[in-house]
Specification:
Blueprint (H helix, E strand, L loop, with lengths): L5 H10 L6 H8 L4 H23 L6 H8 L3 H18 L6 H22 L8 H17 L2 H17 L3 H7 L1 H17 L5 H8 L16 H6 L1
């Protein structure tokens, strides 16, 4: 089994806040390496950022902002890597192997614990990074999980946004975060054709909430070959 370098282990311990190297062990079990998983997520970011640019401001450069934003909080880094791992497994057609399924479940459970731990922190429970992490998990469940689980995350996200006094208030502090949340929520609702009144009400309060969903940016080549 391939061993991880000192630098990679430091990344797992400190950037991911993963002192037990749970993520590293899962990657080894699935025969994946951190650098290729990170590269995969950059491809995802590039494709989705293009659509966000088109929807909000074609002159803006959002890819570099997103890549720096996720590294500001371990809950976001771990969420990004979970998405990338699932993407890589789909491309290699190993997503449904027993080993992959076991590792994915372990990573999902770990990420849920991270989100819950962040929410229990009275100083940071509704900061921008946690909001975006919950939105990403709702999108992840909409694509890979179930409508009920995705709805749970959307409902929680809507309540958190209300505690922040709405998307418009969030946008006045950082328009980029409002854009990401509006874009994610719009596409998650479309992914499951959800008629979620509370979430739609929160969304409608944003002046940016007139964008069109684009589910093509959530697809992998594996999805295209199956359709």
């Amino acid at each position: 089994m391939r061993s991880f370098s000192t630098g990679a282990r430091s990344f797992h311990a400190f950037a991911l806040r993963d002192p037990m190297h749970l993520f590293a062990r899962a990657l080894q079990a699935m025969e994946l390496d951190l650098s290729s998983v990170m590269a995969c997520y950059r491809c995802v970011v590039l494709r989705q950022s293009k659509d966000i640019n088109v929807q909000f401001d074609p002159k803006a450069v959002r890819r570099s902002r997103w890549e720096s934003f996720i590294f500001e909080h371990p809950v976001l880094i771990n969420m990004a890597l979970l998405i990338a791992v699932r993407h890589r497994l789909q491309l290699s057609q190993k997503e449904h192997s027993p080993r992959s399924q076991s590792c994915i479940l372990s990573l999902e459970q770990s990420q849920i614990r991270r989100i819950n731990d962040a929410l229990s922190d009275s100083n940071h429970c509704i900061d921008d990074h946690v909001l975006v992490a919950v939105a990403l998990y709702a999108a992840y469940e909409a694509k890979h999980g179930t409508r009920s689980k995705s709805t749970v995350h959307l409902t929680g996200l809507a309540e958190m946004i209300k505690l922040r006094k709405g998307l418009a208030t969030i946008g006045r502090q950082d328009r980029y975060v409002e854009e990401i949340l509006v874009w994610m929520i719009t596409n998650v609702l479309e992914l499951h054709h959800a008629q979620h009144r509370a979430v739609k009400q929160v969304l409608a309060e944003s002046s940016l909430a007139c964008i069109q969903p684009n589910l093509s940016v959530f697809k992998t080549k594996a999805d295209s070959s199956e359709s």
